[in-house]
Amino acid sequence: MPPHDEPDQLSAYIDGELEEPERARIDAHLPGCPECRTTLDALRATLTDLGTLPEPAPSEQDSWAVRSALARARRPSKRWQRAALAAGTVAAGLIAVLAVTHNNATTHKTFDATAAGEGSAASVPILTSAKNFDAQSAQAYLLDVSGVVPGANVPAENAPGAAAPTPAYKNQQRAVPLSTSGRTEFSALSADSSTASQIDRCVRVVKRSTQELLNPVQYGVVSFESKPAFFLIFSTTSRYELWVVTRTGCDVLYFAQAV
Amino acid sequence: MNPPEDSELLERFRAGDTTAFAQIVDRYERRVFAIAIRICRHHEDARDVTQDVFVTAMRSLGSFRGDAQLSTWLHRVAVNASLDLVRKRGRREGPGLEEVAEAPASEPGPESVAIESVRAREVHRALGRIAADQRAVIALHDLQGFDYAEVAEVLGVPMGTVKSRLHRARLALAQQLGHLKETEPSPDPGPLR
After folding, report:
1. Residues in chain B within 8 Å Cβ distance of A50
2. Cys-Cys link to B72, which of A238, B44, B68, B167 (CB 3.0-4.6 A)?
3. Residue B29 is nearest to which of A42, A50, A58, comparing CB atoms?
4. Does the predicted interface ipTM exceed a cut of 0.85?
């Protein structure tokens, strides 16, 4: 019987990774070596066991965590610069503000504890800026955060009127009427001293008003049309969303950017 | 139309096309996550590693010279990041399979689900009792289907090292699963260096 001086070869033997004459040598060795046959059986049983493991797959939340991390990893200073530049160069009045009806009874969405937890202000970077955003610069900022090339992936039917020099990245904007409970939530904002808890409150109301799972990307405390406001940026499976919640008057604006 | 080659996506990314990088993420995210969760064994750690891999890639691929394939490079970063995280965390025996994000089962009967999940749970736990770098080689070869040459490239070691490392990893796992008794040829439970 040939000696089993290289037991490491047994795995390669099973895997078909051995060339002749090594393979023939093991073929000749095995019939006379119970020890090697036992090891071979154990290796095969182990491979069978490994085959019972289901294939791991990232969840939708995992996927969006990756994309959110990538968005955050881009240079924020450039974003602010570009947003400010866009504010100065894009003509005013381009964007139609569409009022949409909002039926809280039919759009109520419950989120699981994990999703709700991920939306808490504690886990999402909060940006503060002295910049005064308006609709155009807000959209420019959202564009930059979402990393979408201007002009790409924007459905034609969402483009603004043909006469205007349209910013190609624009997808949609609308004002969101608040439900009674939303108004109650927001009316408490000014009485609340903690920025984080105010943002949490905003996030709760926003999540309650949408049917989709929203992954937090960035929250911001900014000035919007000279009024103090919160910026809440989320990602969904198909777009980035920016919710602007002003701290006076319970105004909520919604912007979307296709991805 | 055929999907673009990695090299084409890299070229577009270097030229400033952010959608090219998004395609790279789409293409490799699942495999990077799978490698990470097999080595780290914890869902949140695998998520962290996956994020790190692609953030590192976004920052580094601009100067990537293409000495290695993009896929090899990404998988190498995934393995190294996973092993680093395991070392940082220290030895931690994880809970059962419920921690692992698994693809949804394709509606088998309740009995087969129970049997499969019990054995899979045992295998998952046994993997947690062998060394992390042994899990890495098993993850790459036995679970992700890389051949010896690909594993050698990802780990940056010679083929002969892959052969012996994989064999010792399987022996260690076989012992944990009860296929080999303590008196059988002894696998080295320590790091395979």
Report:
1. 123, 138, 142-143, 173
2. B68
3. A58
4. no
